[in-house]
Amino acid sequence: MTEVSSLTGRLLVATPALADPNFDRAVVLLLDHDAEGSLGVVLNRPTPVGVGDVLLSWAPLAGEPGVVFQGGPVSLDSALGLAVIPGDEGPPPAAPLRTDGAPPRAGRGDPVGWRRVHGAIGLVDLEAPPELLAGALGSLRIFAGYSGWGPGQLEAELDDGAWYVVESEPGDVSSPDPERLWRSVLRRQRSELAMVATYPDDPSLN
Question: How far apart, in whole angstroms, are the C-alpha atoms of residue 72 and residue 88?
């Protein structure tokens, strides 16, 4: 089997040519990508449903806008949480070895209930007590559903020119203006992609 280079932690930005209405102008953060398939969440699909309406205990940690986002068309009845650990851009250093027979002291570890995906971005265990994470997390974002691709499916879409692949930034997860995220992500690219940000919503107006 051909080895697949992992795109975990990167953004899929829908090209204007992408015809699937589920992903029109979508910005997808890939949470997992390997030869078995891909999984991600759409970062710019806010719903009218408040976080407090479905996960009351987590609502105080949710960033603005404090609503549930539609992460994709798969498993819309499931919830997934993403949050950034401020100032944390990488895995913790290894704990120093002890010579006195005692267990190693804990180093700067990831907080309980948060699993690193990429850099400072991680998945939140929504079954954990929110108070365990309240002091560590930046703003939390809750997603209903996710976006999934089977083996080779995303690669085929990339070959067809359906997506631009760009680097993510921690602020993308908690953008307070998600409706503008597609344009802002493209605009910050140091390439011809920055020009795509000016593409009109209605191509007939171009």
Answer: 27
Cα–Cα dist 59/67, whole Å: 9
For 49-92, the pLDDT digits (tens) are 999 999 999 999 999 999 999 999 999 999 999 999 887 555 44
Indicate the domain borders of the chain. Answer: 10-205
SS3 54: helix
113-134 tens-digit pLDDT: 999 999 999 999 999 999 999 8
* Tokens 């085929």 found at: 156
Task: Specify whether the CB–CB gap between 66 and 50 falls below 8 A.
Answer: yes
Distance CA 56, CA 142 (A): 12
User: CATH classification of 10-205 is 3.40.449.10, yes or no?
Assistant: no
Closest residue by Cα to residue 69 from 133, 139, 120, 18:
139
Taken in order 156, 161, 163, 168, is the CA torsion positive or negative? positive
Q: How many CB atoms lie within 10 A of CB 84?
A: 23
**pTM, full prediction:** 0.84
Query: 133-171 in b/e burial notation, b at 16+ Cβ within 10 A?
Result: beeebbbbbbbbbbbbbeeeebbebeeeebbbebebebe
